[in-house]
Every structure is written in structure tokens, then in C-alpha cells.
Design brief:
- The complex is a heterodimer of chains A (316) and B (511).
- The relative contact order of chain A is 0.21.
- A two-stranded antiparallel sheet of chain A has the order 1-2.
- Chain A has helices at residues 2-30, 38-56, 59-83, 88-106, 142-145, 149-167, 169-179, 181-186, 191-217, 229-239, 244-267, 273-298, and strands spanning 130-131, 146-147.
- Chain A has a single domain (2-298), classed as ABC transporter involved in vitamin B12 uptake, BtuC (Orthogonal Bundle).
- In chain A, α2 crosses α10 (229-239) and α6 (149-167) runs antiparallel to α11 (244-267).
- With 316 residues, chain A is an all-alpha fold.
- With 511 residues, chain B is of the alpha/beta class.
- Chain B folds into two domains: 11-244, Rossmann fold (3-Layer(aba) Sandwich), CATH 3.40.50.300; 262-340 and 426-504, P-loop containing nucleotide triphosphate hydrolases (Rossmann fold, 3-Layer(aba) Sandwich), CATH 3.40.50.
- In chain B, 33% of the residues lie in helices and 26% in strands.
- Chain B has 17 helices and 22 strands.
- Chain B has helices at 51-58, 81-86, 104-109, 121-135, 150-163, 180-195, 207-213, 236-244, 303-310, 333-338, 348-352, 359-364, 381-395, 411-425, 441-456, 468-474, 497-504; strands at 11-22, 25-36, 40-45, 66-71, 74-75, 89-92, 168-172, 199-203, 216-221, 224-230, 262-272, 278-288, 292-296, 318-323, 326-327, 341-344, 374-375, 378-379, 429-433, 460-464, 477-482, 485-491.
- In chain B, the strands form five sheets. Chain B has a six-stranded mixed β-sheet with strand order 6-7-8-3-9-10, sandwiched between helices.
- The termini of chain B are far apart.
- Classes of the chains: A mainly alpha (316), B alpha/beta (511).
- The A-B interface holds A 167-170, 172-173, 175-176, 179-180, 182-190, 305, 313-314, 316 and B 22, 59, 61-63, 80-82, 84-85, 91, 93, 96-102, 106, 109-113, 115-119, 160, 355, 407-408.
- The site of magnesium ion (MG) has 6 residues of chain B, from α1.
């Protein structure tokens, strides 16, 4: 019982950043924009959150910084792909390269003089667990109700995002833009504005996902703190078939693999550590293969029909 | 432009001196147009004359280079479809503007101003049902668009406008994909709307429709307004002449029918459609060289699947297909192309042509494996260009240059491009599915002549058409298709519309 609880606790904690980022990317892709810059944006989110928290001591300010940086990087992607009509894959990859590089550079510049201007190895404010009375004392359930504030917010975000996408006017507009921008445009929806809004909004969430890493999951700054989570999120979006409600399952699966790996390593097994570290990525490949297979079998494709395609009104 | 006579109602729209150019073409050249309430205006013109362009300008999708638009007497700035909608202007586009993966109800309210943040779709559905009832436009608001037939999708487009209470309706070739019955239903809807004081601009290539639908006709040629008539004062022949600039023959000369050996033979062929339902149900067919076999039938009775099974694009689940005595059942498209089978597909934009490639590349697409287009693995651009220029001239394809991308051509010219390529590649059998759909009278005449020329040159032609007049004119033999089976085959000269109609609706042929 105790083992289950502890694995579940770590699972949820590890899954939080994945869920936020997955929902962010789902929103972006629903507008027809593929943002492969996630890894870089998450990294920059983690860095700016930690740097802001360390220097100001304010967690609220740290979240704000991560959100703003995430939004700004995504705005670059939006500008390049919507206004300049650059190739989305190329633009996304350059943002990942740029974000990761810049984060590691700033990690050696934004620290205090006493630490050689480095951020590595410092500790700053962090989100601690806030136990919810009564629920947080029940067996097993306590792993859900003894978490940090960001995680609670994410648990609320999932149904909200689902409702927004499938039950509101704005969600309808958004889905139509990703499916058929020409039709959306003809029906009076501002396609470019929609793409901008959700690319930036999605980037904002991805930035916050990064913030959860450096403020709660693995508090502090470390090179490569995201460990490829940005890429895993791309797979999670496919796994959830672009539906926010399903984002939780993918995130739990990957969070769970993380947790088990954590546990195994702590317990000291014969399995080499490098193999354990490989598990989440192996799972990613397995999931992608399975989903693609299932999609072809059921003849149902969940991807927004115009994902990755630039749209210009008078250019059919 | 002078206005022969203002209609009974008030002036709703006035477009003055509209100009619009695209790279290499002047699509609208100083066009003036007016529309009164309670009036149906037909807009006529050859493929590429600029009809859709002019209407897209009124609907806010394109920006004119110059000109002025007045709506209800006041100067209007229409810079987006949203502005147009606010003025009560709604358009049914030539290619439908529907989101396939969404329900009818969602499509109807898409982009609508004043929709609550959390829309009550039950209320929307009730509203759609009420409108469906009132205008006799049957469609299930819960259904998804991808599940609907083209006719039903067309109804959704019209419901969209009605639901938004559009007063000025633009219908861009709404009947091109409709069966004759559906066109008649649409006519009733348009009349009903007119009696309610709404006005419509109606684009079509079918002369009978101009005569029955409209009150007034305007004719465009190469972006210019060349004539305006009251419908009552004109006739199809005059209109065709105004459009094309020459006399159009409504009949085609053919040599006497003298069929040769059997080219294509189908025996008990079965095939499934996209949803896995039987589309061809034990079909038998024989086609000889020098023969045009017309396939009559209401759309959706297996026409498309028939063409695809023959050309190797769809597997046959049972039965045999023989081409010149050789078994080609489930042969690859390549092997069939090599045996000289040409295919003018039903879906010209996604199957027939590659929109992002140039006209020249599209024309060379079936010949790129051999001389003169290529030597070994290397393409020869100069030869491709030569070939393209020759075909463009021969088929009268209106394009700024051979390098223009196909997606910029008007619908009719895309069709001519495909036809030119397929006829070039065809040495034994030509399968043409609705080849004159969406074409103007001049182009239709050209296509029909070309089909007959292929037959006279000793090739076999399988012509799928809904247009009984076309079949009567061009085909030697007519077979009626119903629910994936041939209901009867007879010489074209013996086929009367009545029997055909009966067989098309599934009635058994009397002995
Ligand atoms: N978005 C565009 N970009 C470039 N050229 C265009 C564009 N839209 C139309 N054209 C060109 O403008 C001309 C007029 O096209 P338009 O679509 O208005 O013709 P149409 O009269 O509607 O013909 P059809 O009967 O075939 O539909 C054509 O030569 C076409 O190639
Ligand atoms: Mg047109």
C-alpha cells in the first residue's frame, strides 16, 4: 500500500509538467500550428522561473517570468510560421536549439557572484506540498491530495481545457481553424489571429510546465533539466488524440515510468541505470507505433487536418 | 454600364468599376453590377471569366484593386467575410466551405456573430430543423459533414446562409454537383427566398437553369462585363454566343458506329466503398473499341467505384476484369497506365491534378517515365515545356503560362489540363467520370468532341455522366447503373429519357 502510494505520488508529480505542456501543445496544434520548439521553451521556462524565484524570492513572479518567456518564444514561432509562412518544422527546431542553448548560457550568467555567476547547485524558493485536509489523510488518495499548488491547478486545467475546446464558441472557432482554415476564413473567423493567439497561449503553458520542473519536481537549475520532456510531449499530444481530457493518461503513463525507474534505482537493482533512463523514450516510440497502427486500423485520424500547413487567403 | 431596367424592389448591392488582377491575369476588369431585392441575377461566363473572383470580392474574401461597393445605397468597406456577413451577404462557394470533421449544427453556427460563449447546440439544432422544414431542405443537424452526400452538403451550405438571415445570397455553381432532382429542389428554395424579398446572385453553366432560375442575366468574358439581358428577352443560344463570342453547336458530329474487338470486359465485379459497404454488386459490362459506353445513373450508385476498380485505384473483392483479353483484375495503376488506360477522375482537385505543381508538370505526369519527357532517370525540362505548350494550345487551356501552378487555374481549366494529359496517355481505353462537370458550354463542347474523336480513332471510351442529354448526344451504348448493378444496356438511339429515368430509380426493365 505504501509503495503504491509513493509511486503514485511521484507519478503525479512527474506528470504535472507533462500535462501542462501537453495541453498547451494541443491548443497550438488545434490551430494548425506544430510547435517543435517545446523542448527549448520548456528549458527556458525552467531557467527563467528558477532565476526569478532565486532573485526575487517570489514564486508568483517566477511563474509570471516562465509564462512570459514561454509566450515570447512561441510568439517568435507564430511570427515565423504565420506571418512569414516559414516551414513549421524548421522554425520549431530552431527554437528548440536556440532555447536550449540560451538557457544553458544564461545558467552560467544569471547566478550570484558568490557562485561564479552560475545557477547550478543553488537552492531557491520552491512549491511545497499542500495537504488538503481529510482527503490528504486517506490511504492512496493522499497521493493525489498531497501535492503542490501547481499540480492542483493542472488537475483543474484538464476539464477546463476540454470544456473550452468542445463546448465553447472559442473552442469551435479554434478547431475549425486547425481543420479547415479556408472554411473558417470564409465564415468570418480571423485565421491569423487565432493561430497567433493559440501558439502564444500554448507556449505560455509550456513555459509553465518548465517552471514546475525547476520549482517543484526537481527544484533548482541543472543543465538539461527537461531531459527530453519537450519531445515526449509531442508524442503525448498524439497519444491523447488532440483531446485535453486524454492528456492525463499519457502523462500518468510517462510519469509512472519515471517513478518506477526512480524506485528501482533507489532500491538498487542489477539493471543498468542507463537502461532505466532509456525507458521513457522507448515507451515514446512504442506509443507512437501503437497509435499510428490503431489509427490506420480504425481509419480515424485525430490530427487536425491542416496541421503544419500555412494558410494565405488569396492563395488558394 | 447602363441598367436596362431596375427591378421591382429596392437596390441592395451596387458594385462599381471593380478591378482585380492576379499574377498574369486581369480577373475583373472594370466590372459594374447591381442587384435589387426580390431578384435573382444569373452570372454567366466561360471558365476563368472571373465570376468566382467577382463574387469573392463581394463576399469579402478577396480585396479588389480598385472599385467601389454600395450596399443598400451606402458605401461599404468589405475587407473580410465578417464584414460581408454583417451586411447580410452570404456565399455558397464553388468548393464547399464546410469542416468535414464537425457536425452540421457546428458548421451552421461557425463564425456567427452573437453566438453565446457557451452555445446551446440543442437550440441551434431545433432552429436548423425548423428551417429545414420551412424550406424543404432535409438534413440531419446531428450528422457529421463527412458522412453527407454532396447534395446534402449543399443543403447545409444553404442552411448556413438562411440561419444567419442573409439577405443577399451568392450561389457559385451550386448545381454543378447536384442531380437534376436536387437542382429542381434548389430552384424551389431560391424562389421561396426571392418571394421573401431576399436577392440572389447565381452562377451556373447550365443554360436551362439560367432560364428557369433567374430574372436577369449578366455575361462576363475575360473579366469584363460584356452583356446584360432580362431573362425573358433572351434565349440559351444567344447567351452561349455572348459568353463564348462565337456560335456554339449544341450537337456533335459522329461517324457511324462500327465497333471493333472487345476492349474491356467486367464479370461479376464486386467492390466496397470507403465505409466498407458494397458499392459494386456483381457488375457485368462489355466495351468494344470504337465505342462510347455511357454509364447513366444517379450519383452515388457505384459510378466512382466502377471507374476506380477499372483503373486499379480500388481493389475488386470479387469478379474478373479483362483488358483486351488479358486479366487485369486488381492490377496496379502503373500497369494499367502502361496498357494505355486513361482516367479522368471524378475528384479533379485531389486525384486528378497536383495543385502545387505547374501546369506543365501536371501535363507531363503520366509520361515522365519515357521519352521524350525523360531520358533514363533524367527529366528534360525543355521537352516538357514543348509538350505542355502543344497541349495548352490544342485544348485551349487558359493559363498565364505553362509554369503557373494548377491551383491558380479556374475549375474548368483544371479539368481541361487533366483531360489533355489523359487523352495523351490513352491508347486503348479512356475512363471519364463526369468530364464536363463545371465546364462552360464552349469547353463542354470541346470535351465532347474530344471523346468522340477518341472513339473515332478506335479507342474505347467509358463515359460516366448524369446528364442524359450528354449521353444521348455522345454515347453509342447506354448502361444504367443502380446500386452497383447494371439495370439494362441498350443502344443510345433506342434509349428514351423515360425508360432511363425509371431504370435509374431502380425499376426493373420490362421484357
Ligand atoms: N487566388 C488566385 N490566384 C491566382 N489566380 C487566380 C486566383 N483566383 C483566380 N485566379 C485566376 O483568375 C481568373 C478568374 O478565375 P475565376 O475563378 O474567377 O473564374 P470563374 O469564372 O469562376 O471560372 P469557373 O467557371 O471555371 O469557375 C482565372 O484565370 C484564374 O486562373
Ligand atoms: Mg468559379
Amino acid at each position: 500500500m505504501d509503495l503504491v502510494s509513493s509511486i503514485l505520488t511521484i507519478t503525479i508529480r512527474a506528470g504535472t509538467s507533462l500535462v501542462i505542456a501537453t495541453i498547451g501543445e494541443i491548443m497550438t496544434e488545434r490551430a494548425g500550428i506544430l510547435n517543435l520548439g517545446l523542448e527549448g521553451i520548456m528549458m527556458m521556462g525552467a531557467l527563467s522561473a528558477f532565476a526569478a524565484a532565486f532573485h526575487t524570492g517570489s514564486l508568483a513572479f517566477a511563474l509570471l517570468a516562465a509564462a512570459a518567456v514561454g509566450a515570447a518564444l512561441a510568439a517568435v514561432h507564430a511570427f515565423l510560421t504565420v506571418t512569414m509562412r516559414a516551414n513549421q518544422v524548421v522554425s520549431g527546431l530552431s527554437i528548440t536549439l536556440f532555447g536550449s542553448g540560451l538557457a544553458s548560457f544564461l545558467g552560467q550568467r544569471l547566478g550570484p557572484a558568490a557562485n561564479n555567476r552560475r545557477l547550478v547547485g543553488l537552492s531557491g524558493p520552491r512549491f511545497g506540498q499542500v495537504k488538503i485536509p481529510f482527503l490528504g489523510d486517506l490511504p492512496v488518495l493522499r497521493s493525489v491530495f498531497d501535492q503542490d499548488l501547481v499540480t492542483y491547478a493542472v488537475l483543474l486545467l484538464i476539464p477546463l481545457a476540454w470544456f473550452y475546446l468542445y463546448r465553447t464558441r472559442a473552442g469551435l472557432w479554434l478547431r475549425s481553424v486547425g481543420e479547415d482554415p479556408q472554411a473558417a476564413d470564409a465564415m468570418g473567423i480571423d485565421v491569423a489571429r487565432t493561430k497567433y493567439a493559440y501558439t502564444i497561449g500554448g507556449g505560455l503553458l509550456v513555459g509553465l510546465g518548465g517552471a514546475h520542473l525547476s520549482l517543484a519536481y526537481t527544484p533548482g537549475w541543472a543543465e538539461n533539466i527537461t531531459g527530453g520532456r519537450g519531445w515526449i510531449v509531442i508524442a503525448l499530444v498524439i497519444f491523447s488524440m488532440w483531446n485535453p481530457a486524454r492528456a492525463i493518461w499519457g502523462a500518468l503513463l510517462f510519469g509512472g515510468i519515471n517513478a518506477v525507474q526512480f524506485r528501482l534505482q533507489a532500491a538498487g537493482t542489477d539493471i543498468p541505470a542507463s537502461f532505466l533512463n532509456m525507458l521513457p523514450y522507448l515507451a515514446t516510440i512504442a506509443v507512437l507505433v501503437l497509435m499510428t497502427w490503431w489509427e490506420t486500423l480504425s481509419k480515424r485520424v485525430g490530427a487536425p487536418a491542416s496541421l503544419g500547413v500555412a494558410y494565405m487567403r488569396e492563395e488558394k | 454600364m447602363s441598367d436596362p431596367q431596375a427591378g421591382a424592389g429596392t437596390r441592395l448591392v451596387e458594385m462599381r468599376g471593380i478591378r482585380k488582377s492576379f499574377p498574369g491575369v486581369q480577373a475583373s476588369d472594370d466590372v459594374c453590377l447591381s442587384l435589387d431585392s426580390g431578384e435573382v441575377l444569373a452570372l454567366l461566363g466561360e471558365n476563368g471569366a472571373g465570376k468566382s473572383t467577382l463574387m469573392n470580392i463581394l463576399a469579402g474574401l478577396y480585396h479588389p484593386d480598385a472599385g467601389q461597393i454600395l450596399v443598400r445605397g451606402r458605401a461599404a468597406r468589405i475587407s473580410s467575410p465578417r464584414d460581408a456577413a454583417a451586411l447580410g451577404i452570404g456565399m455558397v462557394h464553388q468548393n464547399f466551405m464546410l469542416v468535414d470533421s464537425m457536425s452540421v449544427a457546428e458548421n451552421v453556427v461557425l463564425g456567427m456573430k452573437g453566438l453565446p460563449f457557451v452555445p446551446d447546440l440543442r437550440k441551434v439544432k431545433a432552429g436548423i430543423r425548423e428551417l429545414s422544414e420551412r424550406y424543404n431542405l432535409r438534413v440531419d443537424p446531428e450528422a457529421y459533414v463527412w458522412q453527407l452526400s454532396v447534395g446534402e452538403q449543399q443543403r447545409v451550405e444553404i442552411l448556413k446562409l438562411l440561419y444567419r438571415r442573409a439577405e443577399i445570397l451568392i450561389l457559385d455553381e451550386p448545381t454543378a454537383v447536384l442531380t437534376p432532382q436536387e437542382s429542381a429542389e434548389l430552384n424551389a428554395v431560391v424562389r421561396r427566398m426571392r418571394s421573401e424579398g431576399k436577392a440572389a446572385i447565381f452562377i451556373t453553366h447550365k443554360m436551362e437553369e439560367v432560364m428557369t432560375f433567374s430574372d436577369r442575366v449578366m455575361v462576363l468574358r475575360r473579366g469584363k462585363l460584356v452583356a446584360e439581358r432580362r431573362t425573358a428577352d433572351t434565349d440559351p443560344r444567344e447567351l452561349a454566343r455572348l459568353m463564348v463570342g462565337r456560335e456554339v453547336l449544341f450537337c456533335v458530329d459522329k461517324r457511324p458506329f462500327s465497333p471493333g474487338d472487345c476492349v474491356l470486359e467486367l464479370e461479376g465485379v464486386r467492390a466496397e466503398d470507403e465505409r466498407g459497404l458494397p458499392a459494386l454488386d456483381g457488375l457485368d459490362l462489355r466495351l468494344r473499341s470504337g465505342e462510347i459506353l455511357g454509364i447513366a445513373g444517379v450519383a452515388g450508385n457505384g459510378q466512382r467505384e466502377l471507374a476506380e476498380v477499372i483503373t486499379g485505384l480500388r481493389p475488386a473483392t470479387a469478379g474478373r476484369i479483362r483488358l483486351k483479353g488479358r486479366d487485369v483484375t486488381n492490377g496496379s495503376p502503373l500497369s494499367l497506365i502502361r496498357s494505355g488506360v486513361g482516367h479522368v477522375p471524378q475528384d479533379r482537385s485531389s486525384v486528378g491534378a497536383v495543385g502545387d505543381l505547374s501546369v506543365a508538370a501536371n501535363l507531363a505526369m503520366k509520361g515522365y517515365r519515357s521519352r521524350p519527357v525523360s531520358v533514363g532517370p533524367v527529366l528534360r525540362p525543355s521537352r516538357i515545356l514543348e509538350l505542355a505548350k502543344r497541349l495548352i494550345a490544342a485544348f485551349g487551356i487558359a493559363t498565364p503560362s505553362p509554369q503557373t501552378r494548377v491551383k491558380f487555374l479556374s475549375g474548368g481549366n483544371v479539368q481541361k489540363t487533366i483531360l489533355a494529359r489523359e487523352i495523351g496517355a490513352c491508347t486503348s481505353l479512356l475512363v471519364a467520370v463526369y468530364p464536363s462537370r463545371g465546364l462552360d458550354v464552349g469547353a463542354t463542347e470541346a470535351v465532347r468532341k474530344e471523346l468522340v474523336a477518341q472513339r473515332d480513332a478506335g479507342r474505347a471510351v467509358l463515359l460516366v455522366s448524369e446528364d442524359l442529354e450528354e449521353l444521348a448526344q455522345v454515347a453509342d451504348t447506354i448502361a444504367v447503373l443502380f446500386e452497383g448493378r447494371v439495370m439494362g444496356t441498350f443502344p443510345a438511339c433506342e434509349a428514351d429519357p423515360e425508360t432511363l429515368g425509371l431504370l435509374m430509380s431502380g425499376a426493373k426493365k420490362e421484357a
